[in-house]
Amino acid sequence: MTPIVSVFKNPPDGGRGFHRDIRVRWALEEVGQPYQLRLLTFSEMRRPEYRQLHPFGQMPTYEDGDLVLFESGAIVHHIAHQYPGLVPADRNSRSRAVMWMFAALDTIEPAISSGSVSHLQQRLHELSTALGDSEWLDGAFSAGDLLMVAVLRAPHGANLLEAYPNLYSYVERAEARPAFQRALIASSNRVRSA
Fold first, then answer.
1. Beta strands, E only, the chain
2. pLDDT, tens digit, for every residue of 49-70?
3. 1 secondary structure, DSSP code
4. Domains of the chain (ranges, CATH numbers)
5. Which terminus of the chain has fewer CB atoms gathered within 10 Å of its CB, N or C?
């Protein structure tokens, strides 16, 4: 069965991929899993039938047969463990990839949302130090990198990463990945040919 991902019919960002549904589509592109898009308006997201899929009426949702998930991090975690390509086979490396997924969503994203520039700069400095001159956070590209870059893309546009050249390059490297580019095209076109 082909998974279905809910996305904005008319995204407020104009299809630039700054909404959380890009995380899910990017993950599916990375693992080569075809998917379908369910295009929804804001009013359709408030309807009872959508609230049965997502009790908070937000994006995205993920449907695969009788499995329905919401929350982009949970969906990416599921995809990463369902299909090969986003978490290493080695148990310890796999656990570290999951650790970076949580760090992206529980440490970096709240700092971005907090509105506190000093708190965000502290977290970006710490992340920059952890990344160092490595290409990815822990060896090969993983779901941890996918989520970390997805949350960093917002400040990337606001020039907050320019003080951290390694993070700036990290985001650019990830955005250059073919899977990201395909997800971004799907975001702007609202059409996914699988």
1. 4-8, 36-40, 61-64, 67-70
2. 999 999 999 999 999 999 999 9
3. -
4. 4-84+178-189 (3.40.30.10), 91-175 (1.20.1050.10)
5. N
